[in-house]
Amino acid sequence: MNRFHILTLFPDMVRDGLNTSIIGRAIEAGHLEINAVNIRDYSTNKHLKVDDYPYGGGAGLVMQPEPIYRAYQDLRKNMKKAPRVIYLTPQGQVFRQEMAKELAKEEELVFLCGHYEGIDERVLEEIVTDYVSIGDYVLTGGELPAMVMIDAISRLVPGVLNNDESAGEESFENGLLEYPQYTRPPVFLDKEVPEVLLSGHHENIRKWRYEQSVKRTKERRPDLWEVYEKEKGKKGE
Ligand code: 6GU
């Protein structure tokens, strides 16, 4: 069982976004738990204010440290050890499958979602263990990145995917992009399904799929292909 705590000003967005399809089913089955915490609930301001103008001037508002710190402490008191706290920021390390695998081993994770022009640095220094970005572009908040990470991590948690879903052959599992897939009908817009897939010859199918993976990776992700070739060299293949 994995428990995800999300500190956010938009808890409904995270709850609704993760309550569907495979992740929703896994929550229902008790493999995952999503605890979306509203940072605003920890404001002591009479207007429930959680942000203020940046010292030194500049555009936008900065999230204040106290409500976030109180929300974190409230979580922490129910945990045996200090959890990893992931702050979603374009200034973080870029999220990859390897990191998803590593984080899937953690029983509990805390995601801190910022908004506006960011969060007061002092609370980040105090509680954040990992700064993570989901790619080189700027989003309006950390909620979508947190949901992206939770989806990628969850499907690696035992029991979340069923046998049909968890092939382990998908893109990045072997460093190559996945081969093309086909289903019925056998002919669509005059295009036939590749004959080898109808042959029942498992070894030929395996070889064809590998070749397609290589071709696709070279064409679409030459950067990944370069890494794959280097790794092959190291393994002496
Ligand atoms: Cl994690 N947060 C925001 N606000 N923008 C991003 C991001 C994260 N990753 C890429 N862009």
Automatic annotation (TrEMBL):
<dbReference type="InterPro" id="IPR002649">
    <property type="entry name" value="tRNA_m1G_MeTrfase_TrmD"/>
</dbReference>
<dbReference type="GO" id="GO:0005829">
    <property type="term" value="C:cytosol"/>
</dbReference>
<protein>
    <recommendedName>
        <fullName>tRNA (guanine-N(1)-)-methyltransferase</fullName>
        <ecNumber>2.1.1.228</ecNumber>
    </recommendedName>
</protein>
<keyword id="KW-0963">Cytoplasm</keyword>
<dbReference type="Pfam" id="PF01746">
    <property type="entry name" value="tRNA_m1G_MT"/>
</dbReference>
<dbReference type="GO" id="GO:0002939">
    <property type="term" value="P:tRNA N1-guanine methylation"/>
</dbReference>
<keyword id="KW-0489">Methyltransferase</keyword>
<keyword id="KW-0819">tRNA processing</keyword>
<dbReference type="InterPro" id="IPR029028">
    <property type="entry name" value="Alpha/beta_knot_MTases"/>
</dbReference>
<dbReference type="InterPro" id="IPR016009">
    <property type="entry name" value="tRNA_MeTrfase_TRMD/TRM10"/>
</dbReference>
<dbReference type="GO" id="GO:0052906">
    <property type="term" value="F:tRNA (guanine(37)-N1)-methyltransferase activity"/>
</dbReference>
<feature type="binding site">
    <location>
        <begin position="134"/>
        <end position="139"/>
    </location>
    <ligand>
        <name>S-adenosyl-L-methionine</name>
    </ligand>
</feature>
<dbReference type="InterPro" id="IPR023148">
    <property type="entry name" value="tRNA_m1G_MeTrfase_C_sf"/>
</dbReference>
<comment type="similarity">
    <text>Belongs to the RNA methyltransferase TrmD family.</text>
</comment>
<keyword id="KW-0808">Transferase</keyword>
<feature type="domain" description="tRNA methyltransferase TRMD/TRM10-type">
    <location>
        <begin position="3"/>
        <end position="226"/>
    </location>
</feature>
<dbReference type="InterPro" id="IPR029026">
    <property type="entry name" value="tRNA_m1G_MTases_N"/>
</dbReference>
<comment type="function">
    <text>Specifically methylates guanosine-37 in various tRNAs.</text>
</comment>
<comment type="subunit">
    <text>Homodimer.</text>
</comment>
<feature type="binding site">
    <location>
        <position position="114"/>
    </location>
    <ligand>
        <name>S-adenosyl-L-methionine</name>
    </ligand>
</feature>
<keyword id="KW-0949">S-adenosyl-L-methionine</keyword>
